[in-house]
Specification:
It is a single chain. The protein is of the alpha/beta class and 316 residues long. The protein has two domains: 4-194, Rossmann fold (3-Layer(aba) Sandwich); 209-314, 2-Layer Sandwich (GMP Synthetase, Chain A, domain 3). The chain is built from nine helices and twelve strands. Strands 1, 2, 3, 4, 7, 8 and 9 form a seven-stranded mixed beta sheet that branches. β5 and β6 (110-112) form a beta hairpin.
Length: 316
Amino acid sequence: MVQMAAMKAVLVAVVGEPNAGKSTLLNAMVGEKVGIVSSKPNTTRVVVRGVVTEGEVQIVLMDTPGLNTSSKVFERRLVQQARGALAEADVALLVWEFPVVRGREKGVGKVVDSRAGEQLRTRVEELKAQGARTVVVGLSKIDRVKDKKALLPFLAEIATWQKELGVAAVVPLFAPKGDGVKALVGELKRLAVAGPWLFPAGQATDMPLPLRLAELTREQAMQLLEQELPYSVGVVTVLIEQNDDAPWLVRQEVLVSKEQHKPMVLGAGGQMIKQIGMRARKEMQGIVGAGVRLELNVRVEARWLEREELWREMGY
């Protein structure tokens, strides 16, 4: 047991463009599924806190919605959440998708974009202007550059301004395989300061279970539904019934904003909602450590993305 006098902590805002790989990285660092993942941008709709506790150090990671700009009410709210987390944090972890271009020579594949260093500097300067104190950069999807020697000029370029802009570390990452994750955790531990932990050892997240289970179902809807429909889908957990000797009962409502979207979510003969439910149920069982019986109902709520009372119902 770690004595309070020995405890260290660091609060980290995980920021970046939509679909940069923030949630994948968060899950890899925590060691279990905390944030949902989809290939579609703007999957994250709420600041998700994941906790890494190693030795005397606790790292609290705040996975934020992508820092884009939008005129839509709901998406503007997501950006406000992300900026609030940035202001609260000790460190901004910028997950930056490494830019590559197609090589001119046949068989070369993807090569480093010559503008990469300049683009990263601009992004760091923006974060500093938004209130970031210390920045750590995680270079995501670095595996797309096959010849790692090609990274050397880029790394040499950023070394010329890294200290000036308060960049504590730059860590190449490929989160799906875990490459670079241990090194990144080490860099964040180095930035921790003396102080009490925010969460008990062993706790992975502070997300309430109803929201966590709802997000798992929304993740599957995001992955399975076509075109623009996933962005207008929400999920509310209306019942969790825990049973000692039987599967848990979880009842949820899938929200859509238009009547014509309902049959798309249901699918022919109910096959789409069945597939969403089967995949979500499997994920839920891993979270609760027990069998789950999942009941899904599709509910139409016009313009729900603009209605704050429905955001609160979902837990956002």
